[in-house]
Specification:
mainly alpha; 4 strands; 2 domains; two-stranded antiparallel ribbon
């Protein structure tokens, strides 16, 4: 009789633990809504430098050539920047494939986001941190207006008023803002599903940046 009571008790505890785990998973699960997906689609469009509707190494090479044409950097510095951009492009943008369509790009991000938002957030941090390193030309952990515009011009976007408006959105002090400011703004943009949250990057993309 005592054995039967213990068995029933064990089964009840096991059932309770399973229910708690189930509720925890349901609460922690992150879903990409339409707003977030539209932001990812805008990000895809902004990275499609050659406008062929797929992302590939051709796009980042085009960006790197634009950067070289500006003539601001030494060959050694350019080589280091290209090495970094190639790595993050292959790993995060192309997901280690040769090319990716918009639908596949969005689906890839959606799966990673919904599988583990925390891991996804760190992936976005890695991407924008490496990208900021290519912008921070003097390695002082700040982005000056000159550094910012150099990167923007390499993207073949040279509408001065819009470029200056975007730079000011990062709230520069004495003509520069901390790298961490851009990192935090980008992560918020890439992961936040709340349309009421201010979004510097999406505002820029919506305006045709």
């Amino acid at each position: 009789m005592r054995t039967m009571i213990y068995l029933i008790y064990f089964l009840l505890v096991l059932h309770f633990k399973s229910a708690v785990v189930s509720i925890s998973v349901e609460r922690d699960g992150s879903k990409a809504n339409r707003y977030l997906i539209e932001k990812w689609e805008s990000w895809f469009n902004a990275n499609d430098f050659n406008r062929d509707r797929v992302l590939s190494m051709d796009d980042i090479k085009l960006f790197e050539n634009y950067y070289k044409d500006l003539g601001y950097l030494s060959d050694e510095h350019l080589k280091e920047i290209n090495k970094r951009t190639d790595r993050i492009w292959r790993k995060i943008i192309l997901n280690n494939t040769l090319e990716i369509t918009k639908d596949d790009f969005v689906e890839m991000l959606k799966q990673k986001y919904e599988s583990d938002k925390e891991v996804f957030t760190e992936m976005m941090r890695e991407y924008i941190s490496d990208w900021c390193e290519t912008m921070d030309l003097n390695d002082d952990y700040f982005i000056s207006e000159e550094e910012f515009l150099t990167n923007v011009f390499a993207s073949r976007h040279n509408t001065i008023a819009a470029d200056d408006e975007l730079f000011q959105a990062f709230r520069p002090v004495n003509g520069r803002f901390p790298v961490k400011t851009m990192i935090n703004y980008f992560i918020r943009s890439a992961t936040d599903t709340n349309e009421s949250t201010p979004d510097v990057f999406q505002d820029a993309l919506d305006s045709g940046f």
